[in-house]
Every structure is written in structure tokens, then in C-alpha cells.
Design a protein that fits this description.
Layout (H helix, E strand, L loop, with lengths): L7 H19 L9 H18 L6 H10 L8 H22 L12 H18 L34 H13 L9 H15 L6 H15 L12 H12 L4 H24 L5 E2 L10 H9 L6 E2 L5 E3 L1 H10 L6
Antiparallel strand pairs: 1-3, 2-3
Protein name: Fic family protein
InterPro entries: Fido, Fido-like_dom_sf, Fido_containing
Length: about 325
């Protein structure tokens, strides 16, 4: 393990502390209607990175123009634009259903109907311009595959197609048991569920995108912000998935935990708290001021901050802005 890198247990602890901060002091996750800007930023990032993991060539600027203005800027293949459009539509639905479920979930964390619906939304736009070359009429968006899938390079072999319906029913039962303690760290429980979906590989195409969307639907319904697997972490994600194929869920659990915590600190907590409310220093860090730099400034009395009974230093945006403006001035 690289020197200074926090342990996996520490990563899990930091996630729970950040979520507790959000729930107990800041009122929990805001709905999309309450904080449109937060969810818009996450929406852009997720649509870009999740499709890029699968080979999409659009850059973030092109994704933002496509989603905000409906403009296909650049000269990329039509398939790439439709792929992002479909994923973004599905992600938008996922965030809304996770936080304002209405009549959909019937008291369950996830239903098989929702699984099919997410795949249908994500894949329909690209399927209309570039359908899977081997798909039958019964294997379109939202329909389980009727083909066998070859063994993957890592050694995992998806089950036979005629087993999928029963396996997916069992999978949704397992998902709906997440509300009960399992003894494993929560991020590793999520890792097991996410990996199990990918191992079943229920659809002919789009399983990775659908699996990540379903993971975020679960996170939202459990009071957590979504996880974004960035394209720069693609190899680490795939390696963690291969480890999970052998029932080692730690690397994937850690990746999920780091992503959710980063989204809490980067997008959610600062926006919910506003400029005057005290939040952990991690939620106030920036490229020019790391969490550690802020902590040192707080300890030295250069940054106005309060150390809580839990040992966590807290400040607010106004105080950090004051420190940033004055940190190079000599004190008399």
C-alpha cells in the first residue's frame, strides 16, 4: 500500500462519517428539484465517464452541450451521441426515482420491472441507429438476452441464457435484503450486488452501463449520493471486478466508497451547506488548498475553524475564502 494512503477500513469510516454529517446536520440528500445544479453537475460527469469506460469518444464539453443544449457539437459518430443521450436520460430518471420514488418502488429497493426499464431507457437511442448485429427481435432494449456469452478475458463465464430469468429474480430478492445487516461493510455489500449483476450479464449489450445506473439507484434510495467511476479509473475498476468474480469484494467496495465520499465532498455538502454553515474541511478543499493544508491552517489559527467533539475540524466557505485572500499577507 502506498505510503500515506488510508486503509480500506478508514475509507469506509470516512464515508459513514460524511453521510452522518449530511443526514444529521444538513438534512440529508436534496431532491433534484431542490438542488438542480448539484444533480446537473453529477449528471454530466456520470454520463460522460460511464459511457467513456465503454469506449465512448465524447469529451466532457461535448457531453455538456449535448445534454444542456441538445447540440451534437464535434464530428463524432452518431452512435456516440445517442449512447450518451440514452445514458443521460436513464440517469436523470434514476436520480428522480431514487429521491422521489412516487408510485414506482412499492416499498422495495428495486424491482425487476425497474431493471428492465433502466436498460430500455439507456439503450433505446443508440439501438435505433446502431442495433446489436446479432440481436433477435426478442432481445431489444429492456429484454433479456437469448444468446450465450463467451468467457471473458478474466475467466468469468456468464450463465446460460435460459437461466437468466430465475437468476435475476433471485438477484432482486438479494438486493431487497440490503436493508438488513449482513455483517460485511456496506460498500462491500454494494460491491457484491453490483458484481453479481455483471456476472449474470442479463442483456445482450449495455450491462456495464445498466449495472452502474442500478448501483446509483440503490445508493440514492439508501440516502447516499451516486458513485461515478471515472474513465481514468477504468483499469482499476475492471481489475476490482475481476477480483470480485473470485468473491474478493474489498477492492471494488473501496472504489465505490471513495467515489461516493468524493461526490459528497465535491458536489453535495458544499451546495447544501451554503457559504456560512460549518462543514468538514474535506468538503472545502480545492486544487489550490488541500484538506491537509486547511487542517494545518486551522491548527495554526490562520483559518477560522472549530474542532468538534468527534475530532473533525469544520469551517465554512466564507472563512476559507477569507483565508485564501489573506494567506500570503504577513501578520504583524
Amino acid at each position: 500500500m502506498p505510503r500515506g494512503r488510508p486503509s480500506r477500513i478508514t475509507v469506509y469510516q470516512r464515508l459513514e462519517e460524511a453521510v452522518a454529517e449530511l443526514r444529521e446536520r444538513l438534512g440529508g440528500l436534496p431532491t433534484p428539484a431542490e438542488a438542480e445544479d448539484i444533480w446537473s453537475d453529477i449528471w454530466h460527469q456520470e454520463a460522460h465517464n460511464s459511457t467513456a469506460i465503454e469506449g465512448n469518444t465524447l469529451v466532457l464539453r461535448e457531453v455538456e452541450r449535448l445534454l444542456e443544449e441538445g447540440k451534437a457539437v464535434g464530428s463524432k459518430p452518431l452512435r456516440d451521441y445517442m449512447e450518451v443521450r440514452g445514458y443521460a436520460d436513464a440517469a436523470h430518471w434514476v436520480y428522480g426515482q431514487a429521491l422521489e420514488p412516487g408510485e414506482w418502488n412499492n416499498g422495495e429497493l428495486l424491482t425487476l420491472h425497474e431493471v428492465r426499464s433502466v436498460h430500455h431507457m439507456a439503450m433505446t437511442p443508440v439501438w435505433t441507429v446502431d442495433p446489436h448485429p446479432h440481436a433477435t427481435d426478442a432481445e431489444g432494449p429492456g429484454c433479456f438476452r437469448r444468446h450465450e456469452i463467451a468467457q471473458f478475458s478474466g475467466g468469468m463465464k456468464p450463465p446460460a441464457w435460459n437461466e437468466i430469468d430465475s437468476l435475476m429474480r433471485q438477484w432482486t430478492d438479494d438486493v431487497n435484503a440490503l436493508r438488513y445487516p449482513s455483517g460485511a461493510p456496506f460498500p462491500e455489500v454494494l460491491a457484491r450486488v453490483h458484481n453479481a449483476f455483471e456476472r449474470i450479464h442479463p442483456f445482450l449489450d449495455g450491462n456495464g452501463r445498466t449495472g452502474r445506473l442500478l448501483l446509483n439507484l440503490l445508493l440514492g434510495r439508501l440516502g447516499y449520493p451516486p458513485a461515478i467511476i471515472y474513465k481514468r479509473d477504468r483499469e482499476r475498476y475492471l481489475k476490482a471486478m475481476r477480483r470480485a468474480d473470485s468473491d474478493d469484494y474489498g477492492p471494488l467496495g473501496e472504489l465505490i466508497a471513495r467515489s461516493v465520499t468524493a461526490n459528497l465532498h465535491r458536489f453535495v455538502i458544499p451546495a447544501v451547506a451554503g457559504p456560512a454553515r460549518l462543514v468538514p474541511l474535506a468538503a472545502l478543499s480545492a486544487p489550490d488548498l488541500s484538506e491537509n493544508a486547511l487542517r494545518v491552517a486551522a491548527i495554526r489559527g490562520r483559518l477560522r475553524a472549530v474542532k468538534g467533539d468527534d475530532g473533525i475540524w469544520r469551517s465554512n466557505k466564507n472563512w476559507v475564502d477569507q483565508y485564501r485572500a489573506n494567506r500570503y499577507k504577513r501578520r504583524s
